[in-house]
Amino acid sequence: MAMHANPYSGELVRAIRRAARRHGCEITLADTGDSVSEEAAVIRALRADRVDGVLLVPAAGDEAVINGLVRMGVPTVLVDRMAGRNDVDQVGSENIQAVCALVRHLAGLRHRKIGFISGEEDMATHEERALGYRLGLGRSGIRWTSQLVACGQSTPGGAAAATAKLLDSWPSPTALVVASEAMMIGVQYEAHRLGIRIGRDLAIVGYGDMEWAGQVTPAVTTMAQPIEEIGRKAVELLLARITDPERRPESVRLAPRFIHRQSCGC
Asked: Matching PANTHER family, A to Z (predicted)?
């Protein structure tokens, strides 16, 4: 399995290992550092070890490595970060309706200036979350405006800069939707640096449930990814692909769970 550095990588790995043990399989873990070049090197090494298949959390901007695995007929499942293609098995969280629900929750609290901290623009996952944001605004009767959207580059530092930009602009948002766990760290940091009281001066909701999300004050309202189910399904899809290489590829999206806490101000 080729992994990248992720706020819940350890939890996902443990879920995959549990599922693999139930099927009598062994897992070889490799960290790609979220780098396409390192990912390619890891895949070459795994192929040299004659692994039966690959579970891959693809790096941002990765197409060449995936194309190579598909072309060589290597049983492969993309995990967590799904790609906009139909020639490889994939499993991850549902994004569009989940983020739409977060926006509508804020709109139900009478917020009309709802900002969005988006992730890396070349990733299908974040494109879907951005679409969910726009869908949620539309279903709430709120007009989309680019002034309320800033890219956090999927990093804490990028999200801190994006938060500062939005809060210093006009119209300044009264609520923020944060597209990933890593970026929530930067948003929290910047809000505290500016003396903004989360849940009172600024409502915040996010996607992904890091361990600390329920322990900070106020605790973070979020969509929690079904990590155990993702790990289980990833192993099942890979074993099915190994057993029947000609089967039609599947893209499985599992619904996250809404966790209502205090950061949204209610």
From this structure: HTH-TYPE TRANSCRIPTIONAL REPRESSOR PURR-RELATED (PTHR30146:SF148), LACI-RELATED TRANSCRIPTIONAL REPRESSOR (PTHR30146)
